[in-house]
Specification:
single chain; two-stranded antiparallel ribbon
């Protein structure tokens, strides 16, 4: 069976990318390219160390976000990407990019969506006094963290934890959930409930 061809977008250290490279790359999927909006993103180094093509698309090199996203899309198409994975990608994607890859973009978010979308999700949970928090893998639509949920996992939120400590507790969960979601997509096990398109069904 052909491996699912995955393009990854990342802005920072790339720990979720590394989890993908370590667990599904060469098995259920093949990472065919890693793009970043930051030239100094460690994720690019991780890609190159794994022999994966890597490229930088700084916003300042393009007239606007739409032009930059079009260039990223062209590059991903050239790599043959069938799924786009946002692994700590901090730039907001334009509607044109999202429409170009319908139901082909997934993201990992550090909250139990629909709770605490957007930036500083963990701090939002702390400020709210939540007893549980977690991570969500979801499809990306044109809203902010509003796409249909694929997988979630929750753990207790320590009452004395600051955002940095809480995020460190979430990392192992993120590193498991994102590869699991890729495996499900690669196996063709995800579908939308005809009675409720927001509900993602997982088949055996």
């Amino acid at each position: 069976m052909a491996l699912l061809r995955v393009g990854v977008l990342a802005s920072g250290s790339g720990t979720n990318l590394q989890a993908i490279l370590d667990s599904v790359h060469g098995f259920e999927a093949k990472v065919v390219g890693v793009a970043s909006d930051k030239a100094d993103a460690v994720a690019l180094e991780r890609a190159r160390a794994a022999g994966v093509p890597a490229s930088v698309f700084p916003l300042g090199a393009y007239p606007d976000r739409a032009a930059r996203d079009a260039a990223i899309g062209d590059w991903l198409d050239a790599q043959g990407a069938e799924l786009v994975v946002l692994a700590g990608y901090m730039a907001i994607l334009t509607p044109g990019f999202i429409r170009r890859f319908p139901d082909k973009i997934i993201n990992i978010h550090p909250s139990l969506l629909p709770a605490f979308p957007g930036l500083a999700a963990v701090q939002q949970a702390i400020d709210y006094g939540s007893k549980l928090f977690g991570a969500t893998v979801h499809f990306v639509d044109e809203g902010v963290d509003t796409g249909a949920v694929i997988l979630q996992s929750a753990i207790p939120l320590p009452p004395d934890a600051d955002s940095a400590a809480a995020l460190s507790l979430l990392r192992p969960i993120e590193h498991a959930l994102l590869p699991d979601a890729i495996r499900l997509i690669a196996a063709g096990r995800l579908s939308r409930d005809p009675a409720n398109p927001r509900r993602i069904l997982i088949t055996d």
